[in-house]
Every structure is written in structure tokens, then in C-alpha cells.
Amino acid sequence: MSVGLVLVAHSARLAEGLAELAGQMAPDVTVLPAGGLPGGGLGTDYDSVVAAVQRADSGAGVVLLYDLGSAQMTAELAVESLPEEGTAVVADAPFVEGTVAAAVAAQGGADRDRVLEAAAAAGAPADLGPAPAEPDDRETRQVELTLRNEVGLHARPAALLARGVADLDAQVRVRAGGEEVDAHSVLALMSLGARQGDRIEVLAAGRQAQEALDRISSLVERDFDE
Questions:
Q1: Does the keyword Lipid metabolism apply (predicted)?
Q2: Catalytic residue among 3, 5, 6, 10
Q3: For the chain, which end, N or C, has fewer CB atoms within 10 Å of the first or last residue's CB respectively?
């Protein structure tokens, strides 16, 4: 049971395309598009949004994301009309980045509040994930890996890596091209721009540090199952 997502947009194609993208990164999360008017025109439809929220709720709650201002109003009205208060919440987040971050967080088992936080954090201009903690160097383990998959560390591979360490008691960082980011953030990983043939350095500290390195190494060796 995971938090569901509803994407409220003025265009049905926009909502459907983003739902498809998020679904590739979070295959076990219900991501439902609620875009456009029933007749196929541009706009948002209150009844469609309410119905989507009800279908997306598996018991863990629902987070709604929207594209433009009037879509926000529709989303908020839909949430206010639900019989059980607290069932759903509207995220103040960028539509694309927020959806991706929320989907990956939900896939990792985050509760509704944490999924909401993940979406909101994606909206900070310079925030591509939490600042990596600085563990004691004596406790840090590391491994260097070469990316062999065709697309490198982008979209789906980044999501797989972030999901792979989400449940571990470990601080995990990835370095590439002189930059270092938190391995738990798919957006941060994508910001590295690591491509096929690039080398990355993975650093981990904490009780399950070695498990984190083993999981990431396995993903890279399997070319992220592409």
C-alpha cells in the first residue's frame, strides 16, 4: 500500500504523459491523470479530479499536483469535498519535478507527509535533494563504477538507484564530474549528467553502508536492467 498521486492539468495529454513518465520510475505507485475537460477541451474538471482521488486512494492517502493556478483551485476544491478530512493534500510544487520526486518517494514507502515534502523540495531552485551529511571519513566506504548503460544516470536509472537505497540505514552520496549529491534524490542524481562511459564514485557510511554499495554496484553491473 503506497501513497497515490493525482495529476491535475489543463491538458489531458500533459497529465497522461507525466503519469506515464512517473509510472516508469515508480511502477508500484498509482499515478492517475486528471487533465482536460470531459469533451476533450482544455481546462480542469472538478468531478474528474474527485473521481481520480477516490481511485488513487489505497488507504495511505493521496497527493495532488497541478500545472497552473486554476488547476490548483480545482484540486483544492476536490480535496475539501472529500468525506474524510486528511485523505488527500495538494502539493505546492513544480508539476514535472514535483511529480517525479513524489512518485519515487512513494515507491520507497514514504508516508503521505514525506511524499508531500519530497514534492515541495523539488521546487527550490538550488535544492536538488538534502545536503549530503558528512560522516566520519574513517567510517566511509566507497566504490568507483563505470556506467555502461545507454542513457547513463538519467530518469529511470536514477530512480532505480534512489529506490535501491531508500530503505537502508546508510548515508549514501554519488560523485561525478566534480559534483557530489545525495543518492536518495532522483533529481539530484539526474543533475550530475553522468553518461554512458562516465565513472561515478559512490560513498556510503552507516550501519548498512556495504549493503548500499553492493546494491548500487549490482545495478550498474546489470546496466540498470535496460
A1: no
A2: 10
A3: N
